[in-house]
Design a protein that fits this description.
Helices cover 18% and strands 12% of the residues. The protein has helices at residues 25-38, 110-116; strands spanning 2-5, 12-15, 41-42, 60-61, 64-65. The strands form 2 sheets. A 3-stranded mixed sheet has the order 1-2-3. The longest helix is centred in the N-terminal third of the chain and has 14 residues, at 25-38. The radius of gyration is 17 Å and the shape is globular. It starts with a strand and ends with a helix.
C-alpha cells in the first residue's frame, strides 16, 4: 500500500490495495493514519458493490433520476449533521466522473484557516 499526497491543503491517494477484499489490521491502521493526516483519501479503480449504497446521479431514464438526490436536490449538504452522534466519515464511490466540475468541496477549512489566519 502506498500513500501519495495529492492536494496542497489536504488529500492523499492510496494505491496498491483492493477494497473489495478483507483488509488486515496493519492496512487498516495505515489507512486510518493517512486519513487523519490528509482528511480526504482517494482510492482509484475500485470495484465495489453494496446493497446499502445510496445511488446519487444526475442521469435520467424516461425523465426520472436513476438515484436519490439526482435532480439538483443536493446542491449543498453536510452528511448527517442532524443526528446526535454524526458519523466520523463519509464515502463517495464515483462510477462516472464528468470532464469538468462535479468536485466535492473539502471536509474542513482548517488547513486553509491556518494558512490565511495566522496570529
Amino acid at each position: 500500500m502506498k500513500v501519495s499526497k495529492i492536494g496542497e491543503a489536504f488529500g492523499a491517494e492510496i494505491s496498491g490495495i483492493d477494497l473489495s477484499r478483507p483488509i488486515g489490521q496493519d492496512e487498516f491502521t495505515d489507512m486510518r493514519a493517512a486519513w487523519l493526516e490528509h482528511l480526504v483519501l482517494r482510492f482509484r479503480r475500485q470495484q465495489l458493490s453494496d446493497p446499502e449504497v445510496n445511488v446519487i446521479s444526475n442521469i435520467k431514464v424516461d425523465g426520472q433520476p436513476i438515484g436519490g438526490l439526482g435532480d439538483g436536490e443536493a446542491i449543498w449538504h453536510a452528511d448527517m449533521t442532524y443526528v446526535e452522534r454524526p458519523p466520523m466519515a463519509a464515502m463517495l464511490h464515483a462510477l462516472e466522473i464528468p470532464p469538468s466540475g462535479g468536485i466535492p468541496i473539502g471536509p474542513t477549512c482548517t488547513p486553509l484557516t491556518k494558512r490565511w489566519c495566522r496570529s
